[in-house]
Amino acid sequence: MPRDGTKLALFIDGTNTHPAARALGFDIDYKRLLTEFRSRGTLVRAFYYTVVIEDQESSPVRPLLDWLDYNGFTVVTKPAKEFDDGEGRRRFKRSMGIELVVDAMDLARQLDEIVLFSGDGDFRALVQALKCQGVRVTVVSTMASQPPMIADELRRQADVFIDLTELQLKIRREEPGRTSRSPSAELIGHSH
Question: pTM, whole model, 2 decimals?
Answer without folding.
Answer: 0.83
